[in-house]
Amino acid sequence: MMLLSGPPSCGKTSLLFQFAFNSAYTSSAHRRVVFICNRRRLESKPPYLSQGIDASSDVFNRIRMKYVEDYEGINKYLAGFHLHQLETYPAAIVIDDFGDFFDDKNCKERLGNPRGRDLAMVRTLALCRDAITHANESLASGEPCRLLLSDTHHGDTPRLLFIYKRWIPSIFMIEGNGSGSFILTSNDNASGSGSTRNRKRSAKFSTALQYLVLQEIIEETKQ
Fold first, then answer.
1. What's the confidence (pLDDT) of residue 195?
2. Cα distances (angstroms) measured from residue 209 to each of 48, 136, 180
3. Concatenated DSSP letters for 71-131?
4. What Gene3D superfamilies would the database entry show (predicted)?
5. Domain covering 2-173 assigned CATH 3.40.50.300 in the classification
């Protein structure tokens, strides 16, 4: 499970769609990818493609768009995940603007709890984890099923980061660099030779001219 978090209008949906395309393209078993989103939001701000990707490519036929209105739609899809046949498990599940599916007032009323939004998010994240775990146990040595979420944060830290950190091992952060480009950063811990090395990977990208453009990749290792 992975989270992509960044400020508004920084290209998160474009990055998610690129991930969906790459997952469908590289699947040796031609497994599909499920892209879960709100239809109105997607149509109002459609994702940009990388230059060189043919919009008529057959790969897009393996990306299944699933439109939902709130978190209950996500829960219903995940709750039936164990009913999949082995060959029908997707290569990846992508959920765009995950946090926006949890309306604060709606969650409080449904769950009868002042912290209803937090509880609803935890329950859905638990379903996400259980669905992915079940799929990968069933797939055994085959290609794993991956799950990528995105969320919008305002300021320096993602909204409800303390919840995400408990459920999601890989968190990617986006921030602007002040020149029209954005920096995508991942922090991983890797063990080797009895010591722990912190690896910081960064990618500089932009959505200039309605294309998703990778400008630079930087990797730093600190002993």
1. 44
2. 9, 39, 12
3. HHHHHHHHHTGGG--GGG--SEEEETTGGGG--HHHHHHHHTSTTHHHHHHHHHHHHHHHH
4. P-loop containing nucleotide triphosphate hydrolases
5. yes
